[in-house]
Known about the structure:
CATH topology of the largest domain: Ferric Hydroxamate Uptake Protein, Chain A, domain 1
CATH class of the largest domain: Mainly Beta
Structural class: alpha+beta
Radius of gyration: 27 Å
Shape: elongated
Number of strands: 8
Order of helices and strands: HEEHEEEHEEE
Number of helices: 3
Largest sheet: 5 strands, mixed
Amino acid sequence: MTENKKTNKKVIIGVVALVAVIAVLAVVYSAFRAKPVEGSKEITIEVIDNEQETTAYELRTDAEYLRQAMEEAEGLTFSGTESEFGLMIDTVNGVYADYNADGAHWSIYVNGEYGQYGIDSQPVLDGDTFTIQYEVYMAE
């Protein structure tokens, strides 16, 4: 019987020691692990709404494409319809553009030039300025 008690005591001491080592390792890991840092690219996203009011969002990001950067921009909201070409934006910051009703749509400009890609495939480079502008197509 005393042999069993000694064995149980050794097992308990071993488990307590193991738990203590795990706790120490967890503290060391949390103190020295790599901390998240701001993104490596500085970009600006400007939104020009239907009233020609401009709202600018400056952010640091590691986003590869514009959509991810837009999702990271605090206060910027947008939605649309998913298609084979990616998200087709119809609403930005609560302003809906209805092309079928009046030709209104959201255009994307990259560094002042009309964008050639949608937000899901538009690359993000350091220093870029993206303008998302409410426009109305007027047929001639």
